[in-house]
Amino acid sequence: MSSQNIYILGIESSCDDTAASVIHNARILSNVIANQKIHEEFGGVVPELASRAHQQNIVPVVHQALKKANITKEQLSAIAFTRGPGLMGSLLVGTSFAKSLAYGLNIPLIDVNHMQGHILAHFIDEDGFNKPPFPFIAMTISGGHTQIVKVDDYFKMTVIGETIDDAVGEAFDKSGKILGLGYPAGPEIDKRAKLGNPLAFKFTKPKVDGLNFSFSGLKTAVLYFIQKKTKENPQFIENHLNDICASIQYTIIGILVDKLKRASKQTGIKHIAIGGGVSANSGIRQALKDGEQKFGWTTYVPKFEYTTDNAAMIAIVGYLKFLDTNFAQQSIAASARLKI
Ligand code: KG4
Ligand code: ZN
Fold it and tell me: Which residues contact ligand 1 via a Cβ below 6 A?
């Protein structure tokens, strides 16, 4: 087979999205995601329900990804799947399916670390998007993770900072829940923040050493603040919602940017790449742009559909590993706490 004609099917099922994607060399042909609406009414992901929904969605999602890519499964060069980290019951569905399919088609199986996927999504060939040069700093910010990683090569990565409690997306979502917003609240907080005053209310930033993060204190601070204010004025949230959202977002972005500045200073690296659902946030995007002016950074934000949980990022890692003939054994098992 010519190295120019590699087709990989990527499968992602680490949390609450069932996703499949076909990549041809480094170019995405299809990127299908079945979101699980069921969790909205619970205000968060219910693991037991997530794995059941994956079980229902996986075959139709893979079928659709192949159909959209306009290829048959016999044309596939390999199957790549998310091995971890994530929810065990969810990971098992994608892992078992990928193993069976690779076995049935008698093609290589490739295990992918979900966190590496978020970072290597920057290497998908996409018109109008530049790829970061090595070494660069990657910040992965989502509802499940908050990490700063020094990336020296595709598979030479070092976590130099991470959250010691909640992920940054949880800080948005849990604050939103206190304000009575729907789940996930991040996008609505972002929208309202644009209409509010970021300096209206002050929330203290956590003091965490080095490049680590902590977001659980902010959620508690928001809760106490709202309890106190609504006691004084039961309409407080309604009357000040945009200002509250702007102030919370301002605090969160401040925390992220402080750590990025530190990471850049400490490593001497000025190429900064972000990924994960929270990178959709307009505040963080603006802060990165400001960083280009203020600190001489070059910043990289992937196409939106490759920032949230997706299988295209699994497929690109599959492609890069395929080039290295770095394949998995059929005895491989999912790993909920897999490290980078
Ligand atoms: O990557 P993702 O789709 O799933 C994982 O959590 O892995 O990220 C979802 C998270 C949620 O917490 C959601 O509130 C947050 O990303 N989010 C945002 C925005 N869009 C999504 N947070 C702030 N501003 C946004 N515009
Ligand atoms: Zn993720």
Answer: 15, 142-144, 169, 172-173, 184-187, 190, 276-278, 280-281, 308-309
CA of 141 to the centre of ligand 2 (A): 8
First to last CA, the chain: 31
Q: How far is the CA of 170 from the centre of ligand 2 (A)?
A: 13
**CA 119 to the chain's CA centroid:** 9
Distance from the alpha carbon of residue 228 to the mean position of ligand 2, in angstroms: 35
Q: Which ligand is nearest to the CA of 308?
A: 1
3-state secondary structure 152-196: EECCEEEEEEEECCCCHHHHHHHHHHHCCCCCCCHHHHHHHHCCC
The rounded mean pLDDT for the chain is 96
Closest ligand 1 atom to 283 CA: 24
Nearest ligand atom owner, CA of 45: 1
Question: What is the structure's pLDDT at 1?
Answer: 46
Ligand 1 centre distance from Cα of residue 168 (Å):
9
Q: Which atom of ligand 1 is nearest to the CA of 309?
A: 1
Q: Which ligand is nearest to the CA of 169?
A: 1
Q: What tokens does 99 get?
A: 């193993």
Segment 134-154, tens digit of pLDDT: 999 999 999 999 999 999 999
Residue 44 pLDDT greater than 70, yes or no: yes
What are the structural domains, with CATH classification, of the chain?
7-123+307-323 (3.30.420.40), 136-301 (3.30.420.40)
Distance between Cα 186 and ligand 1 center (Å)? 6
Residues near ion ligand 2 (CB < 5 Å) are: 142, 309
**Percent helix, strand and coil across the chain, each to the nearest 5:** 45, 20, 35
Model pLDDT for residues 225-265, shown as the tens digit of each residue: 999 999 999 999 999 999 999 999 999 999 999 999 999 99
- The upper half-sphere exposure of residue 180, i.e. CA atoms within 13 Å in the direction of its Cβ, equals 9
Question: The dihedral of CA 184, 144, 119, 158: what is its sign?
Answer: positive
